[in-house]
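BUG: 3D viewer hangs when loading the predicted structure for this chain

Environment: internal workstation, default settings.
Expected: structure renders.
Actual: progress bar stalls at 90%.

Input used:
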Amino acid sequence: MSTTPERVTVIGLGNLGRALAETFLRHGHPTTVWNRSADKADALVAAGAKAADTAAEAIADGDLVIVALLDSTVARQILADAADAVAGRALVNVTSGGPEDARELAAWAAEHGAEYLHGAVYAVPQTIGTTESSISYSGSEAVHRRWQTRLELAGKGTFLGTDAGLASGYDVAILAGMYGMIGGFLHATAMASAAGVRATELTPMLLSWLADSFPALSTFAEEIDGGGYTGGESSLAMNQAGLATIVRASQDLGVPAGTLLPVKELIDRQIADGHGAASLSRAVESFRSAA
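Structure tokens produced before the viewer hung:
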């Protein structure tokens, strides 16, 4: 059995790509890098990486090829320009995008003789290669099985299934929840400030309240999957009244209620359809009916 370290290629040297390349170099893997702005490779070359002149040259140089670009449009363009080099390669794409983007790239890779694995990274670049980093994968099970040990150098990995779009499906949904939370936090601090409360004074109480509220999400999830919405502890009608009070208070403080009005609209729509006694979780049906 060969003990020669496998060759790794990293396409794209933004914060994430650079952190990935540094991780593989640190673990002794010959690492080839490529970026459209070639000077971004200078520090990595000084650390032992090889800089390729073209993406195709970089791909041809790697056993494992990791793609970490700005977005899925750029990833498609770069890979298309290097199409002649991808045959026989394991392509692991950690570029952000939607589920259909991943499925399209998986189909493209198969047409060109490559195997495709999509990754969703849950880490800030400085935690890549530590226990604080985790990455979800979907797509080629063979690629994940073959390269699992090496991929876990970057972060704890979870294989979600052979549908290449699954990792992105989880990712964009989780990020939507995150940004909704951040929007709520910013709104809360604006209201607090208008009422004479500092954000640093509000935040500990807000965090405590949110932590106590998190178990309700698991209950809501069961109701959403089951479609029953019979839980009566947090009805749509009760939340409609509560939201109306908060919206009015926000406006009285001179703070636009832009983060709350869309949620209130979802609830109002369900109550107008006669579901006021149903669980708050039924508001998800307003999204589904709109779709």
